[in-house]
Amino acid sequence: MKHFLAAAAVALIAIGAAAQSITTPPSGGNERAGVTQQIGIVKISIDYSSPHVHSPQGQDRRGKIWGTLVPWGMANLGFGTCKECPWRVGANENTVFTTSHDIQVNGSALPAGSYALFAIPQQDEWTWIFSKNHTSWGSFFYDPAEDVLRVKAKPEKAEYREVLTFDFTERKNDHATVAMKWEELAVPINITVPNAVDLYIANIRNELRTSPGFTDVSWEQAARYALDNKRLADALPWAEASVSGAGGIGRKNFTNLMTLAEAQEANGKTAEAAKTREEGLSHPSATVFDLHGYGRQLMAAGKNEEALKVFELNAKRNPGVWPVNMGLARGYSAVGRYPEALKAAKAALPQAPDEGNRKNIEGAIKKLEAGQDMNK
Questions:
Q1: What is the DSSP letter of 298?
Q2: Considering the chain, what percentage of its residues have pLDDT values greater than 90?
Q3: Which of 132, 159, 192 is the last residue of a domain?
Q4: What pLDDT does residue 13 have?
């Protein structure tokens, strides 16, 4: 019996050692938090434990956070293997910074992956540390040999924050800024995606091999993105597919044809572009607003004579329809034919669909009557 009880006790101890601990509130009430931000295709996330300015016992530590609770420089925490330890930028488990793609942090390269985010705080300059050992608890076992990147940052005065927080204070398609904010201090991290357009192009290329690739709209949108971002080698085949893709994908309409014409011209196929553009302008799908918009686009590019031809084509195909007369007024005015522009503007006035357009036309008429270009 004694042998049985001893064996049972050993088994219970083994089971207890192997079992996971129960879930209780976090140490010091420092709740786990996180923030996630897309920068174009790239996904950035920061997971951290957020301490309070007031201690768990209610003591107000305002003015005693920096340089006291969080010491300046490296510190010996009195535990673990680390003798000169950075701050864990939070409490309890490591603060973990994850990026789905390669990025630049404050101008230096950081490969895709997850990292422990540490800091060496100083009064005038901080050092952010990205360590490949992101699974440790705090910085008690920090090893500088595991550093992947160190970058400098300037601390800034900020609005009071009771709880440590990471905020994305600026967000664009190819860059963002995230700042650690606590008490009355903020320390930014500038993130840049140096190849944002390449990532989008690669992603579009993959998407066109799935369900989006079954519609001409997707191919035209892909071509438009490539054109707008000077990726001409991709723009032309994608535009061609939107018009005449295999398997019945392609479809001729005003939008697809005009995008193809632009892609052809951008790739040096001038004669083909002129033919395609003429086909697009003459296509039955070209609405009065399509033609008007294209004329305005030509004017914005300084091609006033070409724009006038488009406005005249619109008037021939859609006589008396808004905004045909307004287009004629703009076109004639742009080439200095003010009497004809004035006549068209007066014809457009009773067709104005709203008060805003009516006021714009009235202003144009005054300019034309004074012999001035209404477009300026």
A1: H
A2: 84
A3: 192
A4: 36
